[in-house]
Amino acid sequence: MSSDPLHRAFGDLLSKIEREHGFRGALYRQRCLLRRVAVRMRARGLADPKEYALLLDSDPDEYNELLRVLTINVSKFFRNPDTWEVIRERVLPGLAERERPLAIWSAGSAAGEEAYSIAILLYELLGGENGKGLKGISIVGTDIDRAVLEQAKRARYPEVALSETPPQLRQRWFSVREPYRLKPVIRSLVEFKRLDILASRPEFDADLILCRNLLIYLDRKAQEQVFRMFVDVLRQGGFLVLGRVEGLARPVRRKFEVVSARERIYRKR
Fold first, then answer.
1. Are 58 and 114 found together in one domain?
2. DSSP 8-state secondary structure symbol assigned to residue 214
3. Most buried among 215, 221, 245, 260, by the most CB within 10 A?
4. Mean pLDDT, residues 112-139 taken together
5. DSSP secondary structure string, 150-208?
6. Can you give the pTM of this predicted structure?
């Protein structure tokens, strides 16, 4: 953070948010965070971070809106269809053959689109009659934002969230009108929990981790911290799926083999 007064004031504001809400802004790319704070300040007609901090003290709704902006909750069902095709063809069949129950983690799950997408593919692959083939499979979506987790549990979505969903899956698993409601049998496969991946790891080991388009907002040190945690959480032979503009941090590359370089899919050695 720069030493000029404006940046010091922004730094004080981010420290306040971490102290009061646990959002560890120091580990995110500072330029991105400052842009997002500035957007909310302009929306409220303020130019001074100190005045905005006072507004946060008096307006809980603004605090909630700021946290939603900072935690970047943007997703779609089956976002980047080519990635999901590789998951369907080269990741899930191998996992399905394992004798132990599977554990799947969607890290930074936002409103649940990613976690529910993997649940749909698993049901298509293993469900059979009444989903009996899915017994023992655990799918957990985590996010730092409590409000967006509540949205995920409700499983109701606008048109844009389904814009990349294959038509046959859309017809099979969603209601016909907006807001589009996900069928209960898919909703029942996914559990949502609050978790800050910069502060702790989940209370389980995983066979598949999906963490797409979250790490790009972290600085290098924080990225390496998260990757070390992923190595610890993933079982041997487990898979890691990143966003297309993301890649493995150098310190952990030797821990993985590449499944698809283009789609950023890796397998733990």
1. no
2. S
3. 215
4. 84
5. HHHHHTEE-GGGGTTS-HHHHHHHB-SSSSEEBPHHHHTTEEEEE--TTT---SS-EEE
6. 0.79
